[in-house]
Design goal:
The complex is a heterodimer.
Chain A (H helix, E strand, L loop, with lengths): L1 H17 L9 H8 L1 H4 L14 H6 L2 H10 L14 H12 L18 H11 L1 H4 L29 H6 L2 H10 L16 H12 L19 E6 L3 H14 L3 E7 L14 E7 L1 H10 L9 E8 L2 E7 L1 H4 L6 H22 L1
Antiparallel strand pairs in A: 1-5, 2-3, 3-4, 4-5
Helix pairs in contact in A: 2-6, 5-6, 7-11, 10-11, 12-15
Chain B lengths: L4 H17 L3 E6 L3 H14 L3 E7 H7 L7 E7 L1 H10 L9 E8 L2 E7 L12 H20 L2
Antiparallel strand pairs in B: 1-5, 2-3, 3-4, 4-5
Classes of the chains: A alpha+beta, B alpha+beta.
Chain lengths: 351, 149
């Protein structure tokens, strides 16, 4: 009996260790499907993420760029850091991504580019800033996003992102400037009339972004409360009426008022002491979806009024608390703003 | 008792490991187009014992306001007794009830997204964790079923 317990214990302990990333399968296709396909598409056509199968992208980047990107992500720019994957698993994913563009992957020499960042700044302002932003903060939105119209067919990378600067060598940035990327708005600046030295200057300027303060880290939850909660000095009906006025006053449209358990219980059994007010500002919603199409999990805007033990309480979710989930600095700003709107509406109605 | 010690250690280890590996944002892509994916999602939710309480047609509101968008919906679901119990005992969870999954078209494929319900746990209420772990387990299965297409 004792022996069987020992065998069982050893088997289970082995099973536990085997289930850990180091021992887990290194089937690139399976790992890609599990970790990457949801954003980049099953065949690398892109979506929330950039199109990895784009031939010009494949031919211009090194395996090291991909590996470092998977490992460290892009802080504040949607692509998360996959810290849980082993080196072998990351290499397997890279091999799978490479299977879409057969051929030997490029290896950029590790020689640093020597240029004049001051001259590069002027050239950058003239040729690059329109898409990549004045300070290299990149385009707005995510990947290519097929779900709505956008200004550019693909998001312009944030060149000042510490994750990008770590992953991209000088020679890779230079090659991209020299050759452009077919299938994207990135053109060859040699063909646009810049000299190789000009391009070196631009690379030096881009490299100087490393000295900027790193972007706000967004992959950890904020310490804010999950919920905004206020006690109303008014009764249930008066509070709801005051909230409706305040919501409209903030340029939102009331779209629905219902009980919390609506649709879960029979109409006659609904609890009218828990009422949800749903509301929306469609322009704000459209902007938010353009910044990150996954933002739907905050939708629609809502405030809940609850009467319990003689008190009327007003609750709203706190978008600031969950925005870290998206690793998207632009969305963080919107969520910060939306948290303030919720507070403003509730204070207007209850104070 | 000594006999059970290895199992206890193992269970503790597995539980710590699963916690650290939990995805905060649940996402899945399916090869199905939007209408088929929507049907499958709702079926899967029901098969896990939940009721779909409502579907918010985000795209319809946007389109009526003059914006261009592909199909975009939010599916609300829950169990009546669970929603009542949670909202009575943990009012801080009220804005997150019923649970929801966003579903939207990306070309001829469909994506679903949800916050991991473990986000709603709180160290101050340890008894809440097993409840949310059960919901998480169900949601992980629902997401996996969509992925398996």
């Amino acid at each position: 009996m004792r022996l069987s317990y020992q065998i069982l214990s050893i088997t289970l302990i082995l099973a536990f260790f085997i289930s850990q990333p180091t021992f887990a399968e290194t089937n690139g296709a399976a790992l890609y499907k599990e970790n990457c396909a949801v954003c980049h598409g099953n065949q690398g056509k892109g979506g929330v993420g950039v199109p990895l199968a784009l031939p010009d992208f494949q031919y211009a980047i090194s395996d090291q760029f991909l590996e470092r990107t998977i490992r460290n992500g892009r802080p504040g720019r949607v692509m998360p850091a996959f810290k849980n994957l082993s080196d072998a698993q990351i290499q397997a994913i890279v091999r799978h991504i490479r299977s879409w563009a057969p051929g030997k992957p490029i290896r950029h020499p590790s020689i640093e580019v020597s240029g004049d960042p001051a001259k590069g700044r002027n050239l950058y302002a003239k040729h690059c800033a329109a898409c990549h932003g004045k300070n290299g903060k990149g385009g707005k939105g995510t990947g290519v996003t097929f779900s709505r119209p956008r200004d550019l067919p693909i998001i312009a990378p944030a060149l000042n992102n510490q994750g990008f600067l770590y992953a991209a060598s000088d020679q890779m940035i230079k090659a991209t400037l020299m050759n452009g990327r077919e299938g994207t708005p990135m053109v060859s600046y040699l063909k646009q009339g810049l000299s190789e030295q000009d391009i070196n200057d631009v690379v030096s300027f881009i490299r100087s972004f490393e000295k900027q303060a790193p972007a706000r880290i967004t992959q950890e939850p904020d310490h804010d409360n999950l919920t905004v909660a206020y006690e109303s000095p008014y009764g249930m009906k008066e509070t709801i009426a005051a909230l409706k006025r305040a919501i409209i006053g903030e340029n939102f449209r009331i779209i629905r008022i219902q009980t919390l358990d609506n649709g879960l219980v029979k109409k006659a059994k609904e609890d009218h002491n828990k009422i949800i007010i749903y509301f929306c500002n469609f322009q704000l919603l459209n902007n938010a979806l353009a910044v990150d199409p996954r933002v739907g999990l905050f939708l629609p805007c809502r405030i809940t009024v609850v009467k319990r033990h003689g008190k009327v309480m007003v609750y709203a979710l706190n978008p600031k608390r969950l925005s870290y989930l998206f690793n998207n600095d632009e969305l963080n700003k919107l969520c910060d703003g939306m948290s303030e709107v919720y507070i403003s509406i509730i204070e207007e109605a209850t104070l | 008792m000594k006999k059970f010690l290895p199992f206890l250690v193992l269970i503790l280890g597995l539980s710590v490991s699963n916690q650290s590996q939990a995805d905060d944002l649940l996402m899945a892509r399916t090869n199905r187009d939007f209408p088929e994916a929507m049907l499958k999602l709702q079926d899967s939710i029901r098969n896990h014992g939940y009721t779909v309480s409502r579907v918010q047609r985000v795209d319809i509101g946007l389109t009526h306001s003059g914006y261009v968008t592909d199909k975009y919906r939010v599916v609300f679901f829950g169990k009546a007794d669970l929603v009542t119990r949670l909202s009575n005992n943990y009012p801080q969870l009220i804005p997150y009830l019923p649970f929801k999954i966003a579903i939207f078209a990306e070309g001829d494929e469909t994506l679903i997204v949800a916050a991991n319900p473990l986000q709603l746990t709180d160290k101050a209420y340890p008894e809440l964790e097993p409840v949310m772990k059960k919901v998480e387990r169900d949601m992980l299965e629902i997401f996996q079923a969509m992925r398996d297409d």
